[in-house]
Amino acid sequence: MTRTEKFLKNSASTALLQIITMLSGFIIPRVMLDIYGSEINGLISSITQFINYFMLVEAGLSAAVVYSLYKPLAEKDYIKISSIVTAAKNFYNKSGYIFVGLTVCLAISYPFFVTTNELSLIEVGILVLVLGVSGALEFFTLAKYRAILTADQKVYIISLASIIYVIVNTSIIVVLSYLNVNIVLVRAIALLSVFLRSYLLYFFVKKHYTYLNYNEIPDNKALDKRWDALYMQIIGVINSGLPILLATLFTNLKTVSVYVVFNLVIIGINGILGVFMGGVSSTFGDIIARKEYKNLKKAYNEFQLIYYLIIASIHGISFAMIMSFILIYTKGITDVNYNLPWTGFIIVLNSLMYSIKTPQGMLTIAAGLYKESRSRITLQTVIAVVFGTLLGYFYGLNGIIIGMLLANLYRTIDLIFFIPKYIPQISKTTTIYRMLGVIILSFIIYIPMLFLHIEINDFGVWIISSIGMIIYACIVISIYTVFFERNTMKGIIHRFR
Question: Do 407 and 383 touch, CB atoms closer than 8 A?
């Protein structure tokens, strides 16, 4: 199977997973708002984010394991593969015990730092423990399977197992919620879906990787990059979780719920973009491991163009449609104000700035440039924390999001010059040219909605309007491609033929 075929297979399964995950992401928060209210919705999101921070005890292990497996998988060095996976298993177990300890500490202390009239202190503590079990299973079961499947460009297996998990998890939560079951018990029963996913991956790996020997002498040296990869993981957590953490500290749980609802659109955007990123890092990692630099230049040039055109289309449409979606989605919810157009605009703008650097970030991971990125990622972290805290203190949720935007802006500019320094085949001139094109195209797609005052008051009208926006976006992108990217697009069409 060629790399392109693997990419298509991974992308198709990832697409299905993202569609189902997006649907689940829209359904569950709405059910939480309907049955339990904005406060409980904010509480669960806040707890989940704290638990996500505890996942940092993994210390970049996942990225290091995947990177270290590229070469032995390409060379079919089964002993080396087993020794790396064995080392990873040992590290994951140790990290898992630390994670459990941190979760227990959070369960004891967290109830005293939040104010809620919906649950008792004991119930809040138990809810923390229940939500933490899912993370613990990541360390003790799922992680080592996910690493070898990712490195071996079999992301589609992870996607299929995750699809089953999402469907079962969503079904349990929705059914039990409408039966008015206590939220703590609902989340506890939903853990069955996590166990199911872990078992499915265990079964596949055991059947198709029969050469794996967990008694092999662990190759701890192969995972030395884990400490450098830690910074990559930290920045990922900060980008996704810092707004909720700061909103918890400087506002209230209802404001956290506001951010969570607006962020549903961003999750949807990331879900669509994730379709095209599924397995891409491992594909480029394989190319770099084999030192196929000519192929690297051509493949990256084509991937970057496709990705940037998609980014421009999605964000242009999102600028135009986010507020109508939010108002329809929260119709009938009166315990907090969700009609915040400025918040909608800057949260999409932040998403654009985060997404526009994704191709360069992917190459950083594929090439294992963790140590080389350390100081740069540290500065991005400082910008996010300092400006997010200061602006959040004075301007609330909007200030927090602007702080994240400034951090992403810095990292975007930095990566333009960083990648060509270590991977000379990548042109910074082309990257700058295309980034400017993304920004211009996004606003060209968005601008007409500023003048067309269409009344959108239900999802039927919203869907029809969105289809119209998609058609318009495709026309704009097509015109741009014909005039400015014709040769590269011909290469892309030839590749997929």
Answer: yes
